Amino acid sequence: MPSAGRADAAGTAGTTGAADTADAVVVGGGTVGAWCAYFLRRSGLSRVVLLEKRTLGQGASSRAAGIVRTQGGTPWAVRLGEWSRKFYLGQRDELGIDSGFRPQGYLLPCFTPADVAAARDRMAMQNALGLSIRWLEPADVDRLNPTLAPGRTLGGTFCAEDGYLIPQRNVIAYAVALAVSGVQVREHVTFTGLRTAGDHVTGVATSAGPVSAPIVVLTGGPEIAEVGKLAGVSVAAGGVRHQVAVTEPHPDLAPGRLPMVFDLSAGLYWRPEESGLLFGMSNPAEPPGDATCIDEQYLALIRERLADLVPVTAGLGLRTVWAATIDYTPDHLPIIGPARGTDQILNGVVVASAGGAGMMWGPAVARAAADVALTGRSDVVDTAQLGLDRFDADGRSRLATDPIALPFPEQAPYQPGKLTIS
Predict the structure, then answer these.
(1) Is the four-CA dihedral 295, 297, 301, 306 of positive or negative sign?
(2) What residues form DSSP beta bridges with 48?
(3) Of residues 35, 99, 65, the one with CA closest to residue 324
(4) Which of these, 19, 228, 266, 388, could form a disulfide with 235 (CB 3.0-4.6 Å)?
């Protein structure tokens, strides 16, 4: 049986000989896949193989904004965000390196009475789960964030422990974790399908030959639907353009003068970045597709909204702008659960997607997916309702949509087999 036969990130060549075997194979070298492989190895599996068709972190992981928010709209989101935050804080002790997480504080302002009512309900739920969320009156919001146009809000919720990390440093951190833990990384090796015996997985087929394994975890970020298709699994997820920009520096934008902010009414967020402001926004009217270029017209609309709320940005140039393909699910919730073929569960195969929140939920989704692969359950979060069986044949979820999420394509619902992924 051919083997991958390639050098891996851990510095160990792929095996050669009659058979290539592993205790588990993880598909995808982004945030979810890489941390999942690490957690599987740390759980005691002797040989874990990670497949990445490009190089580690080359996809969405290195193009993210790095936001880590515990103020989720559902108990699942809260638990995933808090687990990930604590993981980032403990990385240096565990690995000798970290993802650069910085507690900055996150403000979710309210602009209408309906916003206030929803925010107070969320705050009660979040605090009941152990978070430290406090309500800010309008004057408190203005004092906390002097760059915000005064008198614009009706208050808001604030969590001082929320923050952001450096996406590129996160890729370095998980590359180090993979190396020191002994995960066998196969870069430039493409997953081409599952190998099965009845309803049990026996391994994977790859561009470099088959690998036998009783456990397979499928990840892929915005390409998870394509990965699923190769495995014979319909995954209700897709990819859509997300734009991020960073302004030139200004003294009023020093990190000590402003928290991170998420304007839910517009789906616009911002945070400090090298004495300027990093901001991002997705167009809910844009259909799923490749993130191949900057949408200048929509970027102008983003800047208008930002200047309205943060006037100092109106006269600032942009230091950098990029577009990335970000994954989403129809209900803005992660997918963590067994793979399901046409008429049966594929035993030994787990699907994991952070639903566009790779930095925010990625480590927790990865840990939960590893747990489910090994034991069928996880203490990180209750995954019973987060599997593929919550979606109908048209990709509609039986769960309520998480209300605290970027406005990924509300006008372009999931259509099996019709998504174009970059």
Answers:
(1) positive
(2) 24
(3) 65
(4) 228
Q: What is the DSSP string of 392-409?
A: -TTS-BSSPPPSSS----
pLDDT of residue 9: 34
* Tokens (6 digits) for 97: 């390196």
Alpha helices in 155-198, H assignment, sequence order:
167-181
Can you tell me which residue has the tokens 């982004």? 30
Determine the pLDDT at residue 415.
36
Task: Determine the longest span between alpha carbons in the chain, in angstroms.
Answer: 71
pLDDT for 409 equals 63
Phi-psi region of 127 (alpha: psi -120 to 50; beta: other; left: phi over 0): alpha
Query: Which DSSP symbol is given to 62?
Result: G
3 state DSSP class of 366: helix
Helix, coil or strand: residue 365? helix
Bridging pattern class, strands 260-263 and 106-109: parallel
The pLDDT, as a whole number, for residue 344 is 85
* Separation of alpha carbons 120 and 115, rounded Å: 9
Rounded average pLDDT per 10-residue block, the chain, 422 residues: 31 45 98 98 98 93 92 98 98 96 98 98 98 98 97 98 97 98 98 96 98 98 95 93 96 95 94 97 83 89 96 97 92 96 90 96 98 98 98 93 81 33 26
**Roughly what angle, to the nearest 10 degrees, separates helices 31-42 and 358-375?**
40
Task: Name the amino acid, one letter, at 372.
Answer: V
Measured CA to CA, the distance from residue 78 to residue 80 in angstroms comes to 6
- The answer to whether residues 8 and 185 touch, using CB atoms and an 8 Å cutoff, is yes
Q: DSSP assignment of 113-128, as one string?
A: HHHHHHHHHHHHHHHH
Per this entry, what is the length of the chain?
422
The number of beta carbons lying within 10 Å of the beta carbon of residue 400 is 11
Q: 147 near 310, Cβ under 8 Å?
A: yes
